[in-house]
Design a protein that fits this description.
The complex is a heterodimer of chains A (481) and B (251). With 481 residues, chain A is an alpha/beta fold. Helix content of chain A is 23%, strand content 34%. Chain A has 12 helices and 23 strands. Chain A has helices spanning 3-12, 35-44, 49-63, 103-111, 141-146, 154-160, 162-168, 179-187, 428-436, 441-452, 454-457, 462-476; strands spanning 26-28, 87-89, 125-131, 134-138, 150-153, 192-196, 205-211, 222-227, 232-240, 247-250, 253-258, 263-270, 282-293, 299-306, 311-314, 317-320, 326-335, 340-349, 355-364, 369-378, 386-395, 401-410, 416-425. In chain A, the strands form 3 sheets. In chain A, strands 5, 6, 8, 10, 11, 13, 15, 16, 18, 20 and 22 form an 11-stranded mixed β-sheet that branches. In chain A, a hairpin with a 2-residue loop joins strand 3 and strand 4. In chain A, helix 9 (428-436) crosses helix 10 and helix 10 (441-452) packs across helix 12 (462-476). Chain A is globular, with a radius of gyration of 22 Å. Chain B has 251 residues and is of the alpha/beta class. Chain B has one domain (2-250): Rossmann fold (3-Layer(aba) Sandwich), CATH 3.40.50.300. Helices cover 39% and strands 28% of the residues of chain B. Chain B has helices at residues 40-48, 72-77, 95-109, 117-131, 135-138, 148-162, 178-191, 230-239, 242-250, and strands at residues 2-11, 14-24, 29-33, 54-62, 65-66, 80-83, 90-94, 141-142, 166-170, 197-201, 215-220, 223-228. The chains are: A alpha/beta (481), B alpha/beta (251). The interface between A and B is medium-sized, with 24 and 32 residues.
């Protein structure tokens, strides 16, 4: 066995860190999906009639749709009747304060390094924690409330701010949009809701942590962020799950609405359980994320670090409707073992002078397949719009694959679209250069990969960037080519 | 310090080193010269532990350890430094970050605490003057877009930072103009002490005007065929390598 293979083996045998399960009772729906289940969920959430109707409409539409098969991914057919669509940790109805949150649950989040204890939070990050299907706690709510910022679970928003939910839910990702978003619209159980009023700059990072805990459970959360005129918010999302032999489905929807001059920065560090080194188990991550720059001079920026999931199917997109609006997509997608990622973005230029920038860094190791899929579409009204795309792929070893599928459609001759792509391998020369200076091989690979991803990591808020760097090192360490 | 005995090494089944014998003591500077393809760079790479070379015979002891038994990073931590003929670019990783990682892993090996940011920066400042390297260069990604001279200077700067016991300079003079050559040589000379040793691999005598060797060895066809004082280098400069080749071939 060559040294490279040995290192590759050592590193790839590293275990998933968040693979533990919390022993808490949960309250679940019966397995399977039907109109009754949709009603069950809606009833559990004590939802108003209009929300139920919306769900049913989505469900009925979903029944007419087929699972998309264009992705560069392969997986056994999902039996949608084998999934539990609602699971909630059993705890007192709704906690009025954090003290009332089940201690086991709090431990769960502490293990993840997420303290829900407001007093102890010096870092100024407001957290909404979602476990399985429901939001268990939201911190800093009162403080944010003073500024008129609404940051709460989606269920609460339906109750307390129905006019906002009604107006915006499905406005960016309609229920008919795609198979997984239609499914989500029918059965979503919770998620985060955020509204930033006119002229307010949210003073802290808003953060949601998602964790799937119960077995056989799908997680279908829905996040809605509304940034009113001249507002700003930076939003973080983190995800983990226990190790399980079976595959679990995660089909989330994130909608962002940015009004005139508003700016929303959405960062994700996705670390769902990727399956074991033989490709058994792991999360199927089919996510629809989309933002609309509805107002002039608005900006939406997506940054994602995708290291987990058995399958990632995800294209955070921007609809640049307002004139002079800007969309950005910064992505690092790392796959190892038998992981498959088909991820990228869509930038739809509708308004004049709209700008978009895409920086995608794919890293593949082991037997994994990593695809970038991106669409840049310029509509005929989008005078002087510009796009710059850069798609880099880094390969480690000779068993993995990197693919790039860029689509460009331009209906306006004044548009400028640039696309650059590179594929490279981590060189033995680079590794040797590092080891010759006393750096061990693991650290060398971490150093090189972090350097390669730097442009994207730099977009993350400080704390997240550090976490992401560690995660990259952990996921990939040493898969030398 | 270093004792090489009957070292044979090959790459892809082709034997390049065919029985090298060499002893280097602390405080000494050895120059290894020889025509193209004689095995000079191979010797440097084998000593540093580059994996694509296979050692088929012989022994190398370094500070009473079996050098060939040590992983490249352990050799480095034990004080072996190779100034690369072609320094490698590592995009996105600054020299500062790279060197800090290296230095702290070496310190850890020696049982020392890692240097904090402040001490590291002041050490850097001190060493920067040695090779007259520009600070901005060190905050750029490692070797990326560096000129040939900047790369070589950066190698010597790294050497200064890591304070090796045995430095191997592999064709450090290639691609350097006379001013850069002087700066690089000056750096090497200042780092010289009675405790450390240097092996200078070079093509030309030119560098040896500035880094004066105690011994000069001529490598030809995988063997050291002639050794002498620095005068040997001058003789080679004047007469070329042909007379040595003839001598060897006649035997």
């Amino acid at each position: 066995m060559s040294d490279d293979t040995r290192i590759l083996d050592e590193f790839t045998s590293k275990e998933y860190e968040h693979g533990w399960e919390t022993k808490i009772d949960s309250d679940s729906a019966p397995m399977g999906l039907s109109e009754d289940i949709v009603r069950f969920i809606s009833n559990k959430k004590d939802e108003p009639e209009w929300m139920l109707e919306w769900r049913l409409k989505a469900y009925r539409h979903w029944l007419t749709m087929e699972e998309p098969d264009w992705g560069n991914i392969t997986f056994p057919t999902i039996n949608y009747q084998d999934i539990i669509y609602y699971s909630a940790p059993k705890q007192k109805a709704t906690p009025n304060s954090l003290d009332e949150v089940d201690p086991e649950l709090r431990k769960t989040f502490e293990k993840l390094g997420i303290s829900l204890d407001e007093q102890k939070r010096l870092t100024g990050v407001a957290v909404d924690a979602v476990i399985d299907s429901v939001s268990v706690a939201t911190t800093f709510k009162d403080k944010l409330g003073e500024m008129g910022i609404i940051f709460c679970s989606f269920s609460e928003a339906v109750k307390d701010h129905p006019e906002l939910v009604k107006k915006y839910v499905g406005s960016v990702v309609p229920i008919t949009d795609n198979y997984f978003s239609a499914l989500n619209s029918a059965v979503f159980s919770d998620g985060s809701f955020c509204y930033i009023p006119k002229g307010v700059r949210c003073p802290m990072e808003l953060s949601t942590y998602f964790r799937i805990n119960a077995a056989n459970t799908g997680q279908f959360e829905r996040t809605l962020i509304i940034a009113d005129d001249d507002s700003y918010v930076s939003y973080l999302e983190g995800c983990t799950a226990p190790m399980r032999d079976e595959n679990q489905l995660h089909a989330a929807v994130v909608e962002i609405y940015a009004s005139k001059n508003a700016e929303v920065k959405y960062s994700t560090v996705q670390n769902w359980y990727p399956g074991d080194k033989n490709g058994k188990g792991g999360i199927y991550n089919f996510v629809t994320k989309r933002g609309i720059c509805a107002g002039d001079h608005s900006k939406i920026s997506w940054t994602q670090v995708e290291t987990g999931s058995a399958i990632t199917w995800k294209y955070p997109s921007c609809i640049l409707k307002g004139d002079n609006s800007t969309g950005e997509f910064y992505s690092v997608a790392v796959t190892n073992n038998y992981q498959q990622a088909d991820t990228g973005t869509k930038m739809i230029h509708i308004g004049k002078n709209t700008r978009s920038r895409i920086v995608s860094k794919g890293v593949s190791a082991g037997h994994s397949q990593n695809s970038y899929r991106g669409l840049v579409k310029v509509m005929n009204r989008a005078e002087n719009s510009r796009n710059y795309s850069q798609c880099d792929s880094l390969l480690m070893g000779d068993q993995c694959g990197a693919h790039t599928f860029p689509y460009i459609e331009s209906a306006n001759s004044s548009a400028q679209i640039e696309h650059e792509a590179t594929t490279s391998k981590i060189g033995e020369d680079q590794i040797f250069y590092c080891t010759q200076r006393g750096i061990d091989e693991e650290s060398a690979v971490a150093l090189i990969v972090n350097g390669y991803c730097k442009e994207v990591l730099n977009q993350l808020p400080m704390e997240f960037a550090v976490e992401a760097q560690k995660l990259l090192a952990l996921t990939l360490e040493g898969s030398v080519g | 310090m270093l004792k090489i005995q009957n070292l044979h090494a090959s790459i892809d089944g082709k034997e390049i080193l065919k029985g090298i014998n060499l002893e280097v003591k602390p405080g000494e500077i050895h120059a290894i010269m020889g025509p193209n393809g004689s095995g000079k760079s191979t010797l440097a790479s084998v000593l540093a532990g580059k994996e694509e070379y296979e050692v088929t015979q012989g022994e190398v002891s370094y500070l009473n350890k079996d050098l060939l038994d040590l992983a490249p990073e352990v050799r480095a931590r034990e004080g072996i430094f190779l100034a690369f003929q072609y320094p490698v670019e590592i995009p996105g990783v600054t020299s500062v970050n790279f060197l800090k990682t290296a230095l702290n892993q070496i310190r850890e090996h020696k049982g020392l605490d890692p240097l904090d940011a402040v001490s590291f920066l002041s050490l850097m400042k001190e060493k920067m003057t040695l090779v007259d390297i520009d600070k901005s260069l060190l905050h750029r990604p490692l070797n990326e877009g560096f000129s040939g001279g900047e790369k070589k200077r950066n190698e010597i700067f790294q050497m200064a930072m890591l304070e090796p016991k045995l430095s191997i300079l592999d064709e450090t003079d290639s691609g350097l103009d006379i001013d850069a050559l002087r700066i690089v040589a000056n750096g090497v000379n200042q780092l010289r002490s009675s405790d450390n040793a240097t092996i200078v691999v070079t093509h030309y005598q030119r560098l040896l005007d500035y880094i004066v060797p105690d011994f000069v060895h001529v490598l030809y066809n995988g063997r050291i065929v002639k050794s002498g004082s620095k005068d040997l280098a001058l003789e080679l400069e004047e007469k070329g390598y042909d007379w040595i080749k003839e001598e060897v071939n006649a035997v």
